[in-house]
Amino acid sequence: MYRGIFVTATDTEAGKTYVSCKIAEALKKFGVNTGVFKPVSTGDRNDAKALIKAAEIDENPEMVTPVFFKNPMSPYGASLLENDVSGKVFNLKKIDSSFKYFLNKYEFTVVEGVGGVLVPLKRNFFVSDLIKKFNLPIVVVARFGLGTLNHTLLTVEKLKRDKQKVLGIVLSGKRDKKDISVKSNASIIKEITNLFVLELGYNEKIDLEKNKWIIK
Question: What is the 3-state secondary structure (H, E, C) of the chain?
Fold first, then answer.
């Protein structure tokens, strides 16, 4: 079993938190002592609260999400605004310290990113750089519908160029019955990427017996 996974996405609001929570719930049911970690968040710490609830662990949102900006935008953009007002900057050392804490305390840690892989955290430091730094295998979360082929393939291509290990892809969210692409997107993504693809709708659970690729 890996020490953890990094859950990234093709875009903002693609379902990272939902999928991360479902993975944490499945791991707990599987008997794995699971931690959750979202290094940086903007707007609020609601994702951290949801992750804590899913994993059923005694941690506080400030530990799960050590770097926080109040403006709901990219961390780099938010830091530019908040630095002008309060001098707040993106603190990578704080992230490193919290990451080590979770790896040491828990058997497996579900790490949730922010936005997509090229969201800037600092001027020349992106989510993809944080993924390299953590050196964890990756699960990519994408939408079911039209446009997901381009977004998903671009994300996977970027991660592979970075020589990162992509475990598979989870298509998440609402299946629009009027969107005919929903019927074939999963199979096309699987064919082109040669990766595992899991379709996870709302209120569905992850069966780790059938999807062991997520953890090993």
Answer: CCCEEEEEECCCCCCHHHHHHHHHHHHHHCCCCEEEECCEEECCCHHHHHHHHHHCCCCCHHHHCCEEECCCCCHHHHHHHHHHHHCCCCCHHHHHHHHHHHHHHCCEEEEEEEEECCCEEECCEEHHHHHHHHCCCEEEEEECCCCHHHHHHHHHHHHHHCCCCEEEEEEEECCCCCCHHHHCHHHHHHHHHCCEEEEEECCCCCCCCCCHHHCC
State the pLDDT at residue 82: 87
Catalytic residue among 38, 133, 158, 205: 38
CATH assignment, 4-214: 3.40.50.300
- Dump pLDDT digits (tens) for 12-57: 889 999 999 999 999 999 999 999 999 999 999 999 999 999 999 9
Catalytic annotation on 38? Answer: yes
